[in-house]
Amino acid sequence: MIGLILFIAVMGFTLRRSGLTWPERFVNDAFGTAQSALYRPVGAVAGFFRDLGRLSDVYKENEELRRTVAMYTQDQVRYNAIASENERYKKDLEFKQRQEQLFNYKQVISQVIASGSNPYDKTIKIDQGSHDGVKAGMAVVTVDGLVGLVSKVSEFTSTVMPITELDSTTPDTIQISATISGKEQQVFGIVDYDKENGVMRMSKIDENANVAEGDIVVTSGKGGVLPKGLIIGKVLTNQVGDFGLTHTATIQPAAQFDHLYEVFVVMTPDPDQP
């Protein structure tokens, strides 16, 4: 009872006061000063570690952003490559269908698997061989024009001799019988490669034949070597031949030999088959 009475008395005295006593003010001021002195360094340290945490988060976000950008770049490269391939395949398919509608032969698409960098051996290797029906002497073309002739055949691969390597000075060279597109009944000639001057030429053209710069040279189908209608190139110049009786035209090849990805092996019907 005494304790209860004292508690009530103290409560009443406290509630009636409007201010603090000087000991209370002293204690409050002392604690406030100490808290102020401790708060700043403690707050600075806490802010430092908080900034470190934020910096770590920013670093992680930057790393994630870098990975995302790298993946986007790789995806963009892959997309561009796939888009380029699809466009090339589309042109290949259109060319194949168009040629097979115009002429009585089929074209088998093949991938270029090697291209000789040796200046003395510029042959091209493709992934089609005798197993696929490829034979020596068959023409190899792209959507742009004639690339060359199959020179060697293995079971699953073949070697192609580019038309720019058909040396007319060798005894076993293959001479290509050619004509001018749109002037098939007027112009005939033989196409080979002049290594001495580094140009393709169409020789033995009749002096009265009308051959002009920009004319498209195509195979004539005569001679039994190549089927007709294969684009060889474009006439650059036409001048009198060595003996003055015929003309010789220089030709710019139509095929792009530095950018060969897919080629077509031209397979003509076997005349011995019914």
Largest sheet: 6 strands, antiparallel, barrel
Main-sheet strand order equals 1-2-5-4-3-12
Which percent range describes the beta-strand content? 25-35%
**Count of helical stretches:** 2
End-to-end gap: 133 Å
Rg measurement, Å: 44 Å
Would you tell me the overall average pLDDT? 77
Number of strands: 12
- Overall shape: it is rod-shaped
Query: Structural class of the helices, strands and pairings?
Result: alpha+beta
What characteristics describe this protein?
single chain; 274 residues; alpha+beta; 6-stranded antiparallel beta barrel; 2 helices; 12 strands; 35% helix; rod-shaped
Layout of helices and strands, plus pairs?
Layout: H1 2-16, H2 22-102, E1 106-115, E2 124-126, E3 139-141, E4 146-153, E5 158-162, E6 176-180, E7 189-194, E8 199-206, E9 216-219, E10 231-240, E11 246-253, E12 262-267
Antiparallel strand pairs: 1-2, 1-12, 2-5, 3-4, 3-12, 4-5, 6-7, 6-9, 7-8, 8-11, 9-10, 10-11
Question: Can you characterise this structure?
Answer:
- β3 and β4 (146-153) form a beta hairpin.
- The chain has helices at residues 2-16, 22-102; strands at 106-115, 124-126, 139-141, 146-153, 158-162, 176-180, 189-194, 199-206, 216-219, 231-240, 246-253, 262-267.
- The protein contains two helices and twelve strands, in the order ααββββββββββββ.
- The termini are far apart.
- Strands 1-2-5-4-3-12 form a six-stranded antiparallel β-barrel.
- The chain is an alpha+beta fold and 274 residues long.
